[in-house]
Amino acid sequence: MASGEGTGDSNAAGAGMEVPEVELCLDLTSCQLHDLSEVEIPPTLEELDLTANRLTAVDPRIGHLPRLRKLSFRQNLLDDDAVAPLFTWDAIAGLQEIVLRDNKLIKIPDASIFKGLLVFDVSFNELSSLNGLSKVSSTVKELYFSKNEVPKMEELEHFHALELLELGSNRLRVMENLETLTNLQELWLGRNRIRTINLCGLKSIKKISLQSNRLTSMNGLQVPCRTFTSSLTFC
């Protein structure tokens, strides 16, 4: 009898207790934060969105989020030195999506620590080349480099899983080094200086954007047995 009463009391107590909710996502978009000193960062986070703030440094607490999979610093004030620590923290090596769009980067950070990366976005920065891209994991499916100063398509050969490549608004003159991107489905190259179309090796291409280039020929658009959508300006 005593044993039965004890079990009943335990169940009643358990039913009255509130189980704390695990925080998986933290969205601090457009909070105009200069730093995160007054922000609590739960250690259980899987997604952290810091878009549209005034951050000039990466809070070291982010390096202690082992479950983190998506991280966005879009539209901040981060330069190369500011983001460097982010790419050395082993605890967040499981990141799958990194967005550094619209900051002050001059070079591609060494992202070799992220072995399972799927999305890498460094658009709207001040990159003068794609040097360093060879260290980005071959697991990546989406790469974004629009609105930089990139003159050449290079260090792309190992991205066999890549499905989307965005290189619009750069200084590209030649479509090259795409032969191994056999899974590429979308290619965005608008607002460059490209004259000739070359889709050699792009067996899975479905959409290509080449508007506002300097095309002199449409011959490269012949892709046998493949239907795709094109967006072109021919001049």
Automatic annotation (TrEMBL):
Domain of life, source organism: Eukaryota
Record keywords: Leucine-rich repeat, Repeat
SUPFAM superfamilies: L domain-like
UniProt cross-references to InterPro entries, sorted A to Z: Leu-rich_rpt, Leu-rich_rpt_typical-subtyp, LRR_dom_sf, SDS22/Internalin_LRR
Name assigned to this protein: Protein phosphatase 1 regulatory subunit pprA
Classification lineage: Eukaryota, Viridiplantae, Streptophyta, Embryophyta, Tracheophyta
